[in-house]
Design a protein that fits this description.
Elements: H1 5-8, H2 17-20, E1 23-28, E2 37-38, E3 48-52, H3 58-62, E4 65-72, E5 77-87, H4 88-96, E6 101-107, E7 110-115, E8 119-122, E9 126-129, E10 132-134, E11 138-144, E12 149-152, E13 161-170, E14 173-180, E15 183-191, E16 195-204, H5 212-218, E17 221-224, E18 227-230, H6 234-240, E19 247-256, H7 264-270, H8 282-317
Parallel strand pairs: 1-18
Antiparallel strand pairs: 1-16, 2-13, 3-4, 3-19, 4-5, 5-10, 5-11, 6-7, 7-8, 9-10, 11-12, 12-13, 13-14, 14-15, 15-16, 16-19, 17-18
Length: 318
């Protein structure tokens, strides 16, 4: 992935996070969990907008707050978009730290990165608040359960690629299984009320040798070349997915439903031209009270004068 895309691009596929955590995916010889029920419809909680909580190893790579926007076309087909937000000065400062970058600056709605031999640009940025920049919203992948495919749209200059996918469920979790050659990788989605939990099965390559006996005490894990393979039973797989050294987890907090088409920028436009509401000071309140008392007093005087006039007029007639 080139440096231009690394400025704002979020996870096109969930497994990209493994690269940043120093982990390698565990490949299974069949979809997991072995006794899980095959599901033909997307889980309802997966629809909406989610904000990555910032603890992922990919957070530094994204240089901002990551948002994942999931739109359901129907119960079996969804589109997944991504965008990010960050302080403009922070973005340019972090990019400028790269050795091959001469300068980075934001002019209007464009981020300009100057290198020794090239000038790269990220266009169509949105200033949603003073000094807060939002990257363009981009479609990165689709999930089509009716056809049983994951469609990768991250590479804009290439044709979308399709990968076979199978969704299974067990208890309160959903398992997206993706076919890689003849083996499967599994990503777990779990609705945690306020959060969407995303868990990957993975081996921490840095301490695999040291903990190999421990890992194999959970389930047999075989290393062939640079890949790790397992054939867990139902109970072994469930234990594996709770073991911190064999999993990598990312949390996304729920923000809003995608049906709410009005975003922050549009809301600010709707309020344009309206007088801002301000809380009055004690002095202003005191002056207002005096004015009201004065008006009431003048009103009472007018009533008394009218009564006196009517009384005198009645006497003169009599």
């Amino acid at each position: 992935m080139n440096s231009l895309k690394s400025i704002f691009q979020v996870l096109g596929a969930f497994t990209l996070v493994l690269f940043f955590s120093g982990c390698q995916a565990i490949y299974f010889h069949k979809p997991m969990p072995p006794e899980g029920e095959t599901i033909r419809e997307l889980p309802e909680f997966f629809e909406g907008t989610f904000k990555e909580d910032g603890t992922s190893p990919a957070s530094y790579y994204n240089l901002g707050t990551t948002f994942m926007d999931v739109e359901f076309l129907n119960k079996t087909h969804c589109l997944v978009y991504t965008y990010s937000e960050n302080v403009a000065d922070s973005i340019t400062a972090q990019i400028s730290r790269n050795e091959d970058v001469i300068s980075a600056e934001i002019k209007g709605t464009t981020l300009i990165i100057t290198k020794a031999d090239t000038v790269q640009m990220v266009k169509n940025l949105t200033l949603i608040k003073p000094n807060i920049v939002r990257s363009p919203r981009e479609l990165i992948f689709e999930i089509d359960l009716e056809r049983g495919v994951y469609i990768d749209r991250e590479q804009k200059d290439k044709q979308p690629t399709e990968t076979k996918i199978l969704l299974k469920a067990d208890d309160d979790a959903y398992y997206f299984n993706m076919l890689n050659d003849t083996v499967w990788t599994t990503t777990v989605l779990k609705d945690a009320t306020l959060y969407l939990g995303v868990t990957f099965s993975a081996v921490n390559t840095k301490d695999y040798k040291k903990n190999e006996a421990y890992y194999n005490g959970i389930t047999d894990i075989e290393k062939i070349g640079s890949r790790y393979y397992a054939r867990p039973t139902q109970s072994e797989f469930m234990t594996l997915m709770t073991e911190p050294k064999l999993t990598s987890k990312v949390l996304y907090s729920k923000v809003k439903k995608t049906t709410d088409s009005t975003n922050e920028a549009e809301e600010e436009d709707d309020n344009e031209g309206l007088e801002p509401f301000t809380i009055p000071t004690e002095e202003e309140v005191f002056k207002s009270v005096l004015i009201y008392i004065g008006l009431i007093f003048l009103g009472l005087l007018a009533i008394v004068a009218l009564i006196i006039y009517l009384v005198r007029r009645n006497k003169s007639k009599s």
